[in-house]
Every structure is written in structure tokens, then in C-alpha cells.
Amino acid sequence: MKWWLSLICSLSIFLLLPSFSDAEKRMIEPKITGGEGPVEIEAESLFYHQEEQLYEAHGRVEVRRGDFLLKGDHLQWRADTKELIAWGNVVLTEGEDRLECERLEVNLETQLGRIYQARLFLKDQNFHITGREAEKLGENRYRIREGSFTTCDREKPPWKFTVKELEITIEGYGVAKGSTFYIEEIPGLYLPWAVFPIKRERQTGFLLPRLGYSQKYGPEIKTAFFWAIRRDMDSTIYLDYLGKRGFKEGLEYRYAFSRETEGQANIYFIDDQEFHKNRYAFFIQNQQKLPFHFYLKGNINRISDRSYHRDFDEDLPSMAKIDSRSLGELRSILFGGKNWDQFVFLTEAVVYQDLTKRNDEETIQKLPQISLYAHPQSLFNTPLFFDFSSSYTHFWKEKGLKVHRGDLFPRISLPMRIFQVLKVDPNISPRETLYKSYDDPIHGKGDWESRETFDGGVDLSVEFYRIYEGSRIQKISNFLRVSKWMHTIEPMMGYHYRPRVDQKDLPLIDELDRLPYTNQITYGITQRLVGKPKQEGVDSGPFEYAKLKVFQSYSLGDPFSRDPKGRRRNFSNIYGELWWNFAPYLQARGDGAFNLYDQNFEAFNFLLHFKDRREDALYVQYRYTRPNIEELNVGVKVKPISSLYFYGGTRYNLKDDWRIENIYGAEYQAQCWSFGIGVEDKGRSPDGTQKKEFKFHFYLNLLGVGSLGKRPSYMNL
Fold this sequence. Notes:
Radius of gyration: 35 Å
Shape: elongated
Oligomer: single chain
Low-confidence stretches: 1-36
């Protein structure tokens, strides 16, 4: 009841009014300091009855202070009893909130009163509230008779709630009698009596259900109960009916003890009647501040089987969902450490769940990995700079070879500028790597082994730039609010050398264990488009709108590959990267590797996201890496007429000729409500782990009230 509280606070200004005589006046302007400024009272006639201590104002009465304004035909104020009455076309506004009524009665001392034939509009929530009579019964207690509520602006709203009598207690409960929900002028739901909580904070209670239907498994009903445990933690408990699959339970727990200590745990379980087994998933995110400026963070993701992420896609957090689709794995990581100005200490444990295999007995885990890094810094106050990376890793798996590995990789460089134009950075980096293996099924127990090598080279670069006034391309500059543009061209060349070392007998875990002999020149060019925005006449920092990078290497030692006839191929692939970031209207990113000899791409990835001011949108993603990956993802959202949106999307595995899923949707958005339908058409995977399924769901949202069902994420395209 924000309007009543605002009314009481605002009208208390009358307690400060001085006495004035019986003389008729046009304007009285008491000089009251503090608050929101002086009070101004204007009326056609003003009177003061001294014996009754009664002030009267008649005819076009206006009381103004700051953004508070009370208008009416008549007003009375009793100084002794603190009773105020306003009647006749009463209009009270505060900011953009507005109350209209025929009569207002309030005691500013007891804060009790009544309002008759009230119409209230609250701008922030777009609430429209009416009542034949609204009464304040006591502290935080109110009663409304013959009232209505909607968030629609039309005179005949598309929906509204009406009530014969409503009695509420703030921070308590509300009791509604004779409540009816109308669609247009047609009653759709009637509740003779209802009780509901009235809280300023989050409220414990049942959430609106979500409804859907699967052609394969039947109707779906998803229900949830929200538990506001206390201010810094809450929980949501789910019980979903998934047709033939049975009931699925879920628990979400969230906490935020401070800005640095917060987290969330999601746990799901189903005794799947179609798969005839128990299936589960849990996802835990946490970050915690520890004493002495240490920190601990975690991201744990685990599912019961390799089909769960396809059957219950919406359970997975966004990053885990991307990893499961792109990499075919889930990664769980627990890490912590401390950051200094010049050093970083990090320890982590990483566990992978390979979704392409039935178990993880031979999947390599990092338990743990401990690292220490040094940022580039002056070496004993000389022109030389040094930095280093060092790590210890324990590679473990349930069956097979396990390895301890330590790696130390310092680097010394001498960055300089020649004629303040050419950047030169010679550097050398010795490297020591130690190994200790055990449970080796081939060689038995291993001894400590080591590898010594070094990297050396020099990098040269130069930067040319030119600055353009925004008026040179006025339309684009005005559209993006850019005052100046800078175009840079940055050619570079580098030489890199690493000698041959004997490492064929060392354990092979990742690319660090087989460092190739390198004797090569790398050359390339980078171009950037940087804009300097201007916001409300105040210059702000530059923003990089576009970047193009192309580079290639030439080997002076071993060739990168050989052709079918055994001839050397000394040129590497041509690598390129291009992106534009004209957010929120155009974002694009592409990268690729072109084989100069075969005249084709060995890798090519492209992402385009386009949106116009009407919120029509297009999303295109193409991923290709020879020979394992070729996938196309497309999504489009169009607005053929006002308030109506259509969506269509597809995910297609071009390599296996597999339609992963098609998604269709439509949504109608009115001023105070929206309704949508979503359809998911999943295709059967070649290995049979994803079954063919067709399902749909719908959702309804009433502005300011809540939603029945959940708006799908793809409508945010």
C-alpha cells in the first residue's frame, strides 16, 4: 500500500502550517525549510475559524510541496485533532503516481482514515487499482471494498482481478472474499475466499505450474515450491510429472552471505520408468573468501548417464550445456589461491566426465594441479624483464598409467623501441620438466625422468594509425554515438627457436609432453577499428568495434607436413580471425585455418548475431574442424505485425547428417500480458542415445502478477 504510506507522509506537512486570519486570500506561501522545500497552498477562498481551530479552503484548492500535489474542490484541516478532509474531484499526485477519489478522510496523528471512490495508478509497477472504499484500520492494516486490480492501461482492460472485500496486514496475510479473475469482461476464475501472504521481502509459497506435452511420453506438469529461508538464502523444491517417465524431483539452494561468498546447488532425480533406472544430476557453483585474502571457487557438474544432458537439457547451467554439446564432456573444477601485485598462486582439482564413453575408468583427471606465476617485472631494476610459470600436476585415472609432472618455465626479455617506432622484444625461456609415473602396465614402476629444453626468439612489430572525425561517416557515428574513429595497422614478424630433445620415452598426457622442434618465422598483420564514444557531452574511454588478424609461419627446420609424394610443406596454415562488435545490433566473429597446399579449410568457425530496433533477430553459427566436427545452428525471430513474434531454430550435425533438434515458437505481447507456445522436435541420434521426440509447452505472463509456465530462453535471441 505504497499510496497510503506516501499520502500520510506527504500530508503531514500540514502540521507545520502557521495560523492565518479570516481574510480571503489567493495564495499563502509559508517559508518552511527542510524536507522537499516550502509548502504552497492556493485556493479561491481560504478561511480560519479560531475557536474550532479549523482551516478551510474552497474552490480550485491546490497544495504543493516538491513533487507532491493535492488538488480538490474543498479542504478542511483541524489543528487540534489533526484531521484532514478533502472532497470533490480530489486528485493526489506524487512523482508519476496518481490517486483520484471523491472524498479523502485521514487523521495524521493516528494515521487512520478512509478514501471513497478511489482510482490509483502506480507508475513503477503500472498498477491500476480501484475501490469503492479504502480504509486504514490500524498500523499496517487495510480494508478495500468492491475493488479491482490490473496492470493494463485500457479503459476496458484485457484482464483484471475484482474483489468484494479485501483485508490485508503488511508483513502478514491478506484475506480476499468474492475474488474473480476476468478476461476482457468474461469471468474466468472465481474464488469465494482466499488467503495469501503480504510481504515486502521474498515470500514462501507455491509457484505457478508449467504445462507441456510430449508426443512420446505424454502430458507434463511441472510444479515448484519456493522457500524463503532468510534474507541471505532461499530454496526451490520441484516435483514434476513427466507422463510415462514418472515423477522427477529437484532441489535448488541459493545463498549469498556476502559479495565474495555466494553459491548455488541444483540437484535433480528421477526414477525413469521408460529407461527403467534411476537418473540424477547435480550442479554446484560456489565462491568463498578465505582469511589472508585467499579465495576458493568451485563449479561441479555431474550427470548419471551420457543421455541425461539431451533428455533434460534445461537442467544444465549454460556453460555446462555448451561443453556437453561442443566437447562431449562435463568439467568439474575446484580451485583457490591468492593474487599479489606481481605473483599468482593457484591450486585446482579438475575432473572430466566423458559423455562419449560409458564410463570414465580411463579418463585422465587432474588431482591436483598447483601453479605459481609471475607477471612481467623488472629484473633488479635493469632494462631486463622476467616472468615465469611453474606447475605441479598429478594425472590420475582409475585404470592405467598415473603420472606426477612438474614444469618450470621462466622467461627473460629485453623489450625496447627503436626510434620510438619499431617494437623489439628478444627473449629466452629455459624449461625443465620432471616426471614420475606409477601403475604403468607396460614398464612397471617408473623412476624420475626429466627433460631440459629452451625457447628463444625475437618479436618485431610496429603500429600505424590514423584518426578520423565522426562526421566523416556521420550516419554510422551518430547511430553508435561515436565522436572519433581510429584505424590501426599493426604488422609483426617473429622468429622462434626450440631445439630437438629426446622425449619419446616420456609419458604422453597432453601437448606439453611432446614439444616439437621449432625453427620458424611467423609473420602477420592486425587491423583494428576503435571508436571514442561521446555520451551526454562527456568523453568516455575508447571501444574496439572491429578486429582483423591474419598470420602464417614458415619453417626453417622440420616441415609442417608432407604431401602424398613426400615433398616438404614448409608453410603453415594461414590463420585468420575477424570480429565485429556493434552491439546490440550486430555481432560477428569468425576464425579459420586455411591449408595453402590443399586449397581448403582445415578449420572454420563463424558466428553472426543480428538484431534491429524492432527486435527482429538472426543467429547463425557454423562450426567446422576437419575431420571431426561440422555443425550448423540457426535461429531467427521476426515480428510480422505489432506485438506478435515468431521464432524458428535448428541444430544440425552436418558430418553425421543428423537433425539434432528443431525449435519453433510464437509469442503475442500485449501491453499488460503475453502468451507464447513453444515446440521442440528432436531427432534420433546415429548412436541411439537421443531418442526421437516431439513436445510442446505454453506460457502466460500477466504484468506485475507472474507467469504460468516459463518463457523459453530462445525468445531472448
